[in-house]
Amino acid sequence: MGACHFQGLLLLFLVGAPTLIMAQKLFCQKGTFMGIQEDATNMFNWTSEKVEACDNGTLCQETILLIKTAGTKTAILATKSCSLDGTPAITFIQHTAAPSLAAISYSNYCEDPFCNNREGLYDIWNIQETEEETKGTTSLHCPTCLALGSCLNAPSVACPNNTDRCYQGKLQVSEGNVNSLLEIKGCTSIIGCKLMSGVFKIGPLWVKETCPSMSISTRKIDNGATWLHTSVWKLKLLLMLLLLILGGSASGP
Ligand SMILES: *[C@@H]1O[C@H](CO)[C@@H](O)[C@H](O)[C@H]1NC(C)=O
Ligand SMILES: *[C@@H]1O[C@H](CO)[C@@H](O)[C@H](O)[C@H]1NC(C)=O
Ligand SMILES: *[C@@H]1O[C@H](CO)[C@@H](O)[C@H](O)[C@H]1NC(C)=O
């Protein structure tokens, strides 16, 4: 009997220990940035002066999406905050590689206080504009622009070697109730509406890519695109069903 009681106590202690650790507050940098910047590699300072105290069991995160096309500045969508979900990891994705149109994302989830403290972008974003220019251009010209919201104008630009088509698309990027829209036009070698290369969840950011003018021909040419369109469509259906179920139970007695 005595031994049994002792084991019970030990078990309680083991269960209690993680709770004590989790009860400590974690502090993270907090901030959101959306903008178009010249020379983002050297000029962008991602440090946020704001601090967020996290709830139990959370991580810090810092996530950035960078997009550029030849001759334009860099579009930056960045966020730092506490995160309730995710596992400690760094994810770097090159969605579209230069020449011309380029898109990368970087996401860091970590568990130490203020560990989401990246300042500069020099090691993740060093697209060499000059290198593109010296490689020569093709006879192809594409309307080129990058803007938050919609492009006011899109001048026709000679495309660099190794590109063979024009891209035109919009990205809707959302995090919680923060929404931003980005319009992108430029030369590329990617086929179809695939600036994001099918990766639409970047850290806490959700990205929706639409290319109205090419959607029909894209589906015919590219099986991958069809699959993506279908899976997104299925996801939407699932989400609608879920909302219906949740809505139904919420409005019940
Ligand atoms: C964190 O956990 C502790 C212990 O479980 C609890 O007392 C406290 O209210 C929690 N705090 C928050 C912000 O959830
Ligand atoms: C970025 O800003 C922070 C605070 O504003 C500053 O301490 C830091 O030195 C800056 N970093 C660079 C590389 O300018
Ligand atoms: C770029 O492409 C053009 C036309 O195809 C070619 O004449 C030129 O040599 C290329 N330039 C370089 C640096 O490869």
From TrEMBL:
Residues 1-23 form the signal peptide. InterPro entries: Fert-Immune_med_protein, LY6_UPA_recep-like, Snake_toxin-like_sf. Residues 139-213 form the UPAR/Ly6 domain. It comes from the Eukaryota. Keywords: Cell membrane, Glycoprotein, Membrane, Signal. One of its GO terms (cellular component) is plasma membrane raft. Gene3D superfamilies: CD59 (2.10.60.10). The keyword Cell inner membrane does not apply. It holds the Pfam family UPAR_LY6. The keyword Lyase does not apply. It is found in: Cell membrane. This is TEX101 protein.
